[in-house]
Amino acid sequence: MSSAADTLTETPLGGPTLPQERRLVTSIPGPRSQELLARKADAVAAGVGHTAPVQAVAAGGGVIVDADGNSLIDLGSGIAVTTIGNAHPKVVAAVQAQVAQFTHTCFMIAPYDSYVSVAEALNRITPGDHAKKSALFNSGAEAVENAVKIARKYTGKQAVVAFDHGYHGRTNLTMALTAKSMPYKSGFGPFASEIYRAPLSYPYRDGLDGGLAAKKAISMIEKQVGADNLAAIIVEPIQGEGGFIVPADGFLPALVEWCRANDVVFIADEIQTGFARTGEMFASDLFGIVPDLITTAKGIAGGLPLAAVTGRADIMDASHAGGLGGTYGGNPIACAAALAAIDVFENDGMLERAREIEAVLKGRLQQLQATDPRVGDVRGHGAMIAAEFVDPATGEPDAALTAAVAKASIAQGVIVLTCGTYGNVIRFLPPLSITDDLLHEGMDVVAAALAAA
Ligand code: PLZ
Q1: What is the spatial distance between Cα 198 and Cα 424, in angstroms, rounded to a whole number?
Q2: Going by DSSP bridges, is the β-strand pair 384-389/375-381 parallel, antiparallel, or unpaired?
Q3: What spacing in Å lies between the alpha carbon of 161 and ligand 1's midpoint?
Q4: Among residues 117, 162, 143, 129, which one has the least CA distance to residue 340?
Q5: Which of 271, 278, 328, 429 for mutating ligand 1's site (highest number of atoms within 8 Å of CB)?
Q6: Pocket probe mutation, ligand 1, options 167, 182, 284, 429, max atoms within 8 Å of Cβ
Q7: pTM above the 0.85 mark?
Q8: How much is the pLDDT for 17?
Q9: Tens of pLDDT, residues 198-224
Q10: Domain boundaries, the chain
Q11: Do 396 and 390 form a contact (C-beta atoms < 8 A)?
Q12: Which residues line ligand 1 (CB under 6 A)?
């Protein structure tokens, strides 16, 4: 079977030919990166942070190259975006062809083929074989905002339930849906009204099976909100920013069933989990659920900004003409990129590659866990795997250890991201184009950082 990695050992990816290697020629940050970071501090708002102190100049396969000539192993994919690989040749070709043809007409002014083709593709590949429709937007947060609008219009109800540890964006409505105050919400209120929060299934910490966890959530929803007032519940099938929390089996199906029985729209936020990331095209497929609406973004267009709401045609069609849209939503260049990316997802062995990466990452992390009790939990699916770090004596989250391991790994040329309500989770989100060799080398560096911490 040809998986993406086979072809990428020394591949020209789009522009530059990037050797697939970790290479440190300066300390990180090197002088050129330091220069850019100094300019960033002067010119860019302090609220916009960064994880790796580098000036990126090229990326592809499994590496990001900086201005000082360092080549870093990429275990983050720009937060789960470059799933098929950075500057994937099919995306580059599609973008170059489209940008020379036309850059924008506004789909609401003069429609074009690629938008309709992306909608058709999404309607086809998202879970369920019922009649579906899609609408395109620019960012994940914008897709979530629109999913809520659509659900409210369809049901004629207003309340929305989101979950503990949930992350849905940084705009006003999506801040309200997001659980964690620091850094996402603190000082940025007041937040949108009619948003309620229910308990999630978090097997490592609540010890509940899926049925019991769902019962708890549904009881809270019935008592504190009431199905008569509830337009939608929104949940990430596997939580991303919240800590890669995989709900216990049965939790999501029970919620879907309750929504169906109560005229409540079930929205799966698959912005981080979508498009082969978990070893299925969508994480909903892992749990056997068929959402009413699904929000997508990130991996959809190989790095170009695009997002979508896809779902039951009757729900999607409840909004009046002119009620949904935006100047740039479904930009033709982003749509061309998405058609190329979806082609890669469907035809270039991406699901298989994500499962291979799961085996490597879980194997390495479980090895660590067997000898180091600070690794409390290893979880996830596909190329979306995490380790939760704890104080072995108490089981309490250890955010300081987590930050130290991440920082040391980056200094050694391996980009890893942290997450979790308690900041004690390191998540691994490599591009599916990474080689096994780089994946192992990256994990060697993380293991050494943990041993030294
Ligand atoms: N829903 C499930 O993961 C984006 C954001 C990180 P946008 N996650 C990364 C940060 O610090 O801003 C995300 C997500 C889920 C919605 C979003 C929002 O997507 O494209 O960032 O708006």
Answers
A1: 22
A2: antiparallel
A3: 18
A4: 117
A5: 271
A6: 167
A7: yes
A8: 76
A9: 999 999 999 999 999 999 999 999 999
A10: 4-87+350-452, 91-347
A11: yes
A12: 79, 139-141, 144, 167-170, 236, 240-241, 269, 271-272, 297
CB atoms closer than 10 angstroms to residue 189: 11
Q: How far is CA 317 from the centre of its chain?
A: 27
User: Which residues have a Cβ under 8 Å from the Cβ of 115 and sit 6 or more positions away?
Assistant: 107, 136, 330, 332, 335
Q: What is residue 6's predicted lDDT score, i.e. its pLDDT?
A: 40
Residue 295 CA to chain centroid, in angstroms?
11
For residue 364, give Cα distances in angstroms to 21, 419, 423. 20, 19, 21
Looking at residue 13, its pLDDT comes to 39
pLDDT at 15: 42
Cross-strand pairs, 72 = 64
What digits encode the pLDDT tens for the residues 228-285? Answer: 999 999 999 999 999 999 999 999 999 999 999 999 999 999 999 999 999 999 999 9
What does the pLDDT look like over 276-307, one tens digit per residue?
Answer: 999 999 999 999 999 999 999 999 999 999 99
Alpha carbon of 169 to ligand 1 centroid (Å): 5
- Which DSSP letter does residue 197 get? E
User: Is the backbone peptide bond immediately before 247 cis, with ω within 30 degrees of 0?
Assistant: no
The CA distance from 75 to 65, in Å, is: 13
DSSP string, 19-70: -SS-B-SS-SS-HHHHHHHHHHHHHS-TT---SS---EEEEETTEEEETTS-
Could you give the dihedral angle defined by the CA atoms of residues 132, 337, 285 and 121, in that order, rounded to the nearest 10 degrees? Answer: 30
Q: According to the model, what pLDDT value does residue 253 have?
A: 98
Q: Looking at the domain that runs over 4-87+350-452, which CATH code has it been given?
A: 3.90.1150.10
**Low-confidence spans in the chain with pLDDT less than 50:** 1-16
Q: Which H helix or E strand runs over 414?
A: strand 414-415
Element (H, E) at 310: strand 307-312
| CATH number for the segment(s) 91-347 | 3.40.640.10
**Edge-to-edge strands of the sheet including 384-389?**
375-381, 384-389, 425-428, 417-419
Distance, CA of 186 to CA of 262 (rounded, Å): 34
Distance from Cα 449 to the centre of ligand 1, integer Å? 28
Ligand 1 pocket test, candidate residues 139, 142, 168, 181, most atoms within 8 A of CB: 168
Give, in order, the Cα–Cα distances in Å from 98 to each of 83, 101, 103, 114, 331: 22, 5, 7, 10, 10
| Cα(237)–Cα(230) distance, integer angstroms | 20
Would 4-87+350-452 and 91-347 be classified into the same CATH topology? no
